[in-house]
Design goal:
The complex is a heterodimer of chains A (115) and B (113). Helix content of chain A is 0%, strand content 50%. Chain A has 115 residues and is an all-beta fold. The N and C termini of chain A lie far apart (36 Å). Chain B is 0% helix and 56% strand. Chain B has strands at residues 4-7, 10-14, 19-25, 32-38, 45-51, 56-59, 62-67, 72-77, 86-93, 101-103, 107-112. The chains are: A mainly beta (115), B mainly beta (113).
Chain lengths: 115, 113
């Protein structure tokens, strides 16, 4: 089945120790997103790619970086995680484009714990 | 940039009654308004969406209305059932290559038996 797969599902790291979260998709969607969701809050957009074009939100900390080496994969790098970065990280995809195909398909999420 | 406000933050209704959740948006260029439902411990799932060329859309017990002039849109759930208990998020977006989708703050809906 076509889907969005995130790894790992659970990540525990120490304060300041870099982590990388991965997302892969078999939908051949043009757009890939990274959202941060803290408990009882809305998903907060960190950045997204339309194909290879990178779009960073103005309030996304520099501590967060992203890579999209090909259509299928996207990575979230957190260079020096702080306690405040503990959250669920949701990857999503959409077809994108002028036809307005903006329906998001979410992965199951990667829950990050920072000790 | 776009800002989406959502009210109320929590809503409790008797099973069988209706529930209404309201959102406002700031960017007049926004033309696509989806609603997502997130059950506890699960990923958000699209339940209904509306595009700016229509004022209302229905899907069984769920309906969404849009007022472009006032920049607000609402989710209506009729004949609520226990499985409707979840957090609901509205969102706004534009038809563009950037395809940026911004969520409202969410409404926790509880259905009382």
């Amino acid at each position: 089945d076509a889907m969005v797969i995130q790894n790992p599902r659970y990540q525990v790291t120490q304060f300041g120790k870099p982590v990388t979260l991965s997302c892969s998709q078999t939908l051949n969607h043009n757009v890939m997103y990274w959202y941060q969701q803290k408990s009882s809050q809305a998903p907060k957009l960190l950045f997204h790619y339309y194909d290879k074009d990178f779009n960073n939100e103005a309030d996304t900390p520099d501590n967060f970086q992203s890579r999209r080496p090909n259509t299928s994969f996207c990575f979230l790098d957190i260079r020096s995680p702080g306690l405040g970065d503990a959250a669920m990280y949701l990857c999503a995809t959409s077809r994108g484009g002028q036809t307005g195909a903006n329906v998001l398909t979410f992965g199951a999420g990667s829950r990050l714990t920072v000790l | 940039g776009e800002n989406v406000e959502q009210h109320p933050s929590t809503l409790s209704v008797q099973e069988g009654d209706s529930a209404v959740i309201k959102c406002t948006y700031s960017d007049s260029a926004s033309n696509y308004f989806p609603w997502y439902k997130q059950e506890l411990g699960k990923r958000p799932q699209l339940i209904i969406d509306i595009r700016s060329n229509v004022g209302e859309k229905k899907d069984q017990r769920i309906a969404v209305t849009l007022n472009k002039t006032a920049k607000h849109f609402s989710l209506h759930i009729t004949e609520t059932q226990p499985e409707d208990s979840a957090v609901y998020f509205c969102a706004a977006s534009t038809y563009s290559s950037a395809s940026k989708i911004i969520f409202g703050s969410g409404t926790r809906l509880s259905i009382r038996p």
